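U., I forgot to send this yesterday:
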Amino acid sequence: MKEVLLPYLNQIIGINFERAFKIEAAELINVTDTYFSIRDANNGNVHFFSWHAVVQIIENPAGIEVGGLFTHKETFTITVKVGHLTEYVPV
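Result:
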C-alpha cells in the first residue's frame, strides 16, 4: 500500500480520518513502511495511521466524487478508508 500512496505525498487526498462514513480532504504528509500521516485541511491537526488501519484505497485518475445528499460534493483522485472503533452512546 505504501507504493500506492507515495505518488500522492504532499497532495490533498480524501480520507475518513475522524468519522467512519465521512470522507474529508487532508494533505498526505508522510508515508513510511509502518504508517502514513495526514494533516487535517481544516485545523492543521496531524493524524497518524498504521497500515493495519487501512480498510480500502480507491484510486481513479478521472476522480472519485464524495459527499452526501446534504453535503458539499468533492472530487479526489485517491481516497483512503480507515477502520474506526464503534462508538457506543449510553441510552
